[in-house]
Amino acid sequence: MSEKPTYEELKKTVFELKQGKDDLNQIFSMSLDMICIVDIDTTTFLKVNPAFTEILGFSESELLERPFFDFVHHDDIVPTKAVVEKKLRAGTKVIAFENRVRCKDGSYRWLSWTSHPVLEQKKAYAIARDITALKKATDALDESKGKYKVLIDNMNCGVAVYEARNDGEDFIFVDFNKAGEKIDNISKEDLIGKSVAKIFPSVKQAGLFDVFKRVWETGNPESFPISFYKNERLSGWRVNYVYKLPCGEIVSVYSDETLRMQAEEALKKSEDKYRGIIENANESIIIAQDGMIKFVNPKSCEISGFSIQELMSKPFVEFVHPDDQAMVMQQHIKRLKSEEIFGKYEFILVAKDGNFKWVENNGILIEWEGKPATLNFITDRTDQKRDQKEIKNAKEQWEATFNAIPDWVSITNKDYKIIQSNKASKKIIGLSHEQIVGKLCYKIVHELDHPIMECPQVKAFKSNRRETMEFKTGYNRWLEVTVDPIETGPNNKRFVHIVRDITVAKDRENELILARKAKAFSVLSGGIAHDYNNLLTIIWGNISLLREEMTDPQQAEFFDEAEKACRQARDLTHQFITLSHGAILKKTLSPVEDILNLVIKKAGETKILKLRWILKTNFPQQKSILSF
Asked: What is the longest distance spanned by two Cα atoms in the chain?
């Protein structure tokens, strides 16, 4: 049996217990954290320390006389009950459970709870820490991150975020923006979670990997000068700016243009971090709110010629050409109201030097300092507009030249549909180019439902070379058609038709043929007349000799008939000779009135005279009958 403690020992023990209790009470009362004892079954406070009353504003009696759930935010009651049921009443400790508790003034405080249940006592000992300020800071940081995440996704520079592994011996992708995907021709999904050295094997050889290591180890940002990067998949010039986030991650901002990305100071906050990126962007970035410019980057000053202070000193529409001010303001207001508008639109900017600049705006709705605003990415399109104007002038000059060609020129596709035509079609076929574009050429020219025989386009399609044909229209006009195949793209063959009116040339050709025939006939008739005259001379001479020797008077009648026939033959011979000298007939212009008067004179006493003639002009043939 153990010996009983002496009175002094018991007294000492009681004193130590009392001293420990006093110490605990002192800690309980002085703690800045909220300490309480809760009845697990009734979920009521059994005891609270002064921090409870100071933070929540309720007196100790007010807290002890009501169930704990009366103070819990209505959105947090269900998860809080779940913790009590599943953990505290099961004897499991609760660590870092968060909920909102109502204060006496009606506001709510965020508390982080650590609780230790003692089931034998049906009690839970809990410590709550006020994390309201931390929550607000976290929400503000998330809002800031969200705001500048939009900027990152819409900027032209690539941004990659890495996590260090193996004490800085490797760096793993944890984030990648859209511009980076475009620059490196790779998707974000193919990068996240993978080593930069494996995805971009030349990064070590180029020296950029060493920059990552130094920045991670020292925390000092570095600019990596312009260098040429090349691997099996891509190549190009890169400028990199590398810095370290407070969380330890490494950020690389890079561009494939000759822009140097330099930050003036280490980016400690997310807003400062992305401001450096914005200031080095190659396009104007403006945040507009309440009709005023709240933020501009240096590129905005470069485009407009105004300083940052000047741009932010007056309403932004004053920098817009008067003709576009109403439209720009309307687009801004609609975007603030989240109404559907154009994704991009152009307007004229009035620069400080008075010159006009064509710019394109691509804006989105954001929240800036707790209020709606528009984030605008403005690109200078002045040179592009100037080029477009030159192209338009060249097009107009080409069209003027095209329409000045006297021949009818048209372009058809492989299905014979007329795609383009000059204005000469009106002169050739009597139809304007507006009337024939979109129509089938064989319907327009030949009035058929199918291509004609020997169609030059059919031939050109098969031979892939120029084909030509001539044909006579129903109006006695000769046309020459030349067809050339052209390639405007893969499997997209088209044909250039040149139609020329060759009626005059054909008439001249026919006249030349007739002239040649007449000349040949003249030579032939002259020769015949000469030979025939020689024979006639012999015959007539012999008749004269025989007449001298004539003894029978009855023979004189026969000689007279023979000489009469010789005279007729002589006259015919003279006509041949005359024809041989003047067989080539010449056309001369004569007034119709003179011709008609001559005809009437020849007609003598005729009272009714019918005349018919055929007029050959550039118009269809017309037969006319006149009565006198």
From this structure: 217
Structure-block tokens of residue 70: 């009366």
d(CA 422, CA 437): 10
pLDDT at 186 over 80: yes
130 bridge partner residues: 111
Q: How confident is the model at residue 477 (pLDDT cuts 50, 70, 90)?
A: confident
Q: Which ranges in 582-626 belong to alpha helices (H)?
A: 592-603
Alpha-carbon dihedral angle through residues 498, 501, 506, 508, given to the nearest 10 degrees:
-120
Determine the Cα–Cα distance for residues 437 and 412; give it in Å rounded to an integer.
9
- Angstrom distance (rounded) from CA 466 to CA 121: 108
How would residue 365 be classed by pLDDT, with cut points 50, 70 and 90? confident
SS3 state of residue 335: helix
The one-letter code for the residue type at 582 is G
Class of CATH domain 405-501: alpha beta
| Non-local CB neighbours of 412 within 8 Å, separated by 6+ positions | 418, 419, 441, 457, 494, 495, 497
Q: Do domains 151-279 and 285-386 have the same CATH topology?
A: yes
Q: Identify the H or E element spanning 138.
A: helix 132-154
Question: Tokens 């890495």, residue?
Answer: 162
Architecture per CATH, domain 285-386, reads as 2-Layer Sandwich (3.30)
The arithmetic mean of pLDDT across residues 78-83, rounded, is 92
Cα–Cα distances in Å, from 578 out to 35, 456, 522, 527, 582? 147, 49, 9, 12, 6
SS3 per-residue string spanning 512-567: HHHHHHHHHHHHHHHHHHHHHHHHHHHHHHHHHHHHHCCCCCCHHHHHHHHHHHHH
d(CA 71, CA 130): 15
What pLDDT score was predicted for residue 79? 93
Look up residue 368 and give its DSSP letter: E
**DSSP 8-state assignment for residue 354:** S
Which residue type sits at 16? E
Give the per-residue pLDDT at 261.
34
- Give me 426's structure tokens: 């009106």
Torsion angle defined by CA atoms of residues 262, 265, 269 and 273, in that order, rounded to the nearest 10 degrees: -10
Q: Which residues contact 28 (CB under 8 A, 6 or more apart)?
A: 35, 49
- Domain 17-130 = CATH 1.10.10.10: no
Q: Looking at 123-132, 141-150, 261-270, 375-384, which range is the least confident one? A: 261-270
**Region of residue 256 (phi > 0: left; psi between -120 and 50: alpha; otherwise: beta):** alpha
Crossing angle of helices 270-279 and 132-154, rounded to 10°: 20
Domain boundaries, the chain: 17-130, 151-279, 285-386, 405-501, 512-581, 592-627
Homologous superfamily of domain range 151-279: PAS domain (3.30.450.20)
Q: How far apart, in whole angstroms, are the C-alpha atoms of residue 625 and residue 628?
A: 10
pTM: 0.34
Q: Say how far apart CA 421 and CA 410 lie, in whole Å.
A: 4
